[in-house]
Amino acid sequence: MSPLAAHFSDKVWVAKLAYLCDIFSLFNELNLCLQGKMTTVFKLADKVAAFKAKLELWGLPANRGNLDMFQTLAGILGETEPERSFSWLVHGHLSLLLKEFERCFPTTKDPRTGKERIRDPFLNKSGESVQEDQLLEIANDGGL
């Protein structure tokens, strides 16, 4: 028997492997969402912002010992008694991932910030009543 096979009898090692399987599966889903011909910088920024929000959201139950958001890990931990320190390990890793995502995709340089007018040219902002009047005239012009 291979000496590496001993790792599969170590419950903590198998749980860590299951967590990595789940987290890399989520990274793969994000990666696939960021590809394609019919995408815009706004859609990409939305996907990254949503993933950052999910990382933050997943950290809350992980901090309390609830790891159900990771299916493979939850299945492994359902068969064994979960260790409280393992939940802290997952919570710490999610926090580090969130910091790394914030470093790579800072909120301050979000391409969506201040560009709402590009995404939705009919966005209603106060102080634009002249433009609104002109839009209403165009919208109600039957000849156009």
Query: What percent of the residues sit in helical stretches (DSSP H or I)?
Result: 55-70%
Q: Given the structure, what is the number of helices?
A: 6
Total E-strand runs? 0
For the termini, the CA-CA separation is 80 Å
Oligomer: single chain
Overall pLDDT confidence:
83
How many domain units? Answer: 1
Contiguous uncertain segments of 5+ residues: none
Concise overview:
This protein has 144 residues and is an all-alpha fold. 63% of the residues lie in helices and 0% in strands.
List keywords for this structure.
single chain, 144 residues, mainly alpha, 6 helices, Zinc finger MYM-type protein 6
Protein model, in words:
It is built from six helices and no strands. The chain is elongated. The N and C termini lie far apart (80 Å). With 144 residues, it is mainly alpha-helical. The protein has one domain.
Strand-helix topology:
Blueprint: H1 11-33, H2 41-63, H3 71-79, H4 84-104, H5 116-119, H6 129-139
Helix pairs in contact: 1-3, 2-4
